[in-house]
Amino acid sequence: MNQNQPWWAGNARLTNLSQKLLGAHVAHGGLIVFWAGAMTLFELSQFNPDQPMFEQGLILIPHLATQGWGVGDGGEIVSTYPFFVIGSLHLISSAFLGFGGIFHVRSENNVLDQRKFPFFSYDWKDQNKMTTIIGIHLVLLGGGALLLVAKAMFFGGLYDPNLETVRTVSNPTLSPATIFGYLFGAEGRHWLAAVDNLEDVVGGHIWIAILLIAGGIFHIVTRPYAWTQSLFIWSGEAYLSYSLGALALMGFIATYFVSVNTTVYPEVFYGPALEIRLSIVPYFSSPDPNLVSARTWLANAHFWLAFFLLQGHIWHALRAAGFDFQQGRVSNESASSLS
Questions:
Q1: Of 214, 229, 244, which one is at a domain's C-terminal end?
Q2: Nearest one of 294, 263, 284, 265 to 59, comparing CA atoms
Q3: Does one domain contain both 247 and 219?
Q4: Which range is the signal sequence, renumbered to this chain (predicted)?
């Protein structure tokens, strides 16, 4: 490990240790899945079907209900068994991920053998390998979008707040004019969050999946163009900054979406739409000042998480560009390595 990095530097200590960095990532995935499973079961143990869901401080059960699990007419929870199964499956799978992470972290080889594991080995400065990795991630994200499409069309459907029932979406909107009209503000004043029907929601996910998978395949089979090489810094620190910037953007979009949209985030599960108020910093509150709904704290949590992710993006971007925070200036060593 890099002895110049303190313990709280996290994965920065593993920058050049591909085996241990892989283990850290797998273990991190296990922690995320473990949280999802444990939190679902905890929420289930506290859930009161006689009280409005949005008043109970829940986060995962409302998302599962929106996907149509265990929901009847009027948004009534008719069965909590699907919540239990989903939570349990996450707990079980987290154990396998955790074991995989420990296996790689405790391996006697700190670096993956490029001859034995060419698919997983990498070099930060290998631009072709880096774009291949981003392509693989894009394909996986596209597959995730298709899972929601499959749930909506073939596996029970989604909760439709307009009809107050769960239904399958048999005719998703595929018109690019409609779907991309949201992106350019042609469908309403709330931009992407103006979507008000499940056909457009599912159609949008189909288009997202197509773009992600096509983009992923493009990055896998091609090499970076010469004109792109000077646009980016090709280092582990730079890739981290790019990722944090993307997460921050998604967090801000999610903040706005959960605040004003009542189709993807039905009022019966999340509470009424919020008012966005501007002061020294923006905050999001319910029209009823006495109500702190699931929507209220979910929007505020997304905003602050996105805010700190943005700070992380800036911090790592400066370090990638050669700025030394201990010296308070761009170091000569870093500047020469970038030139």
A1: 229
A2: 294
A3: no
A4: none
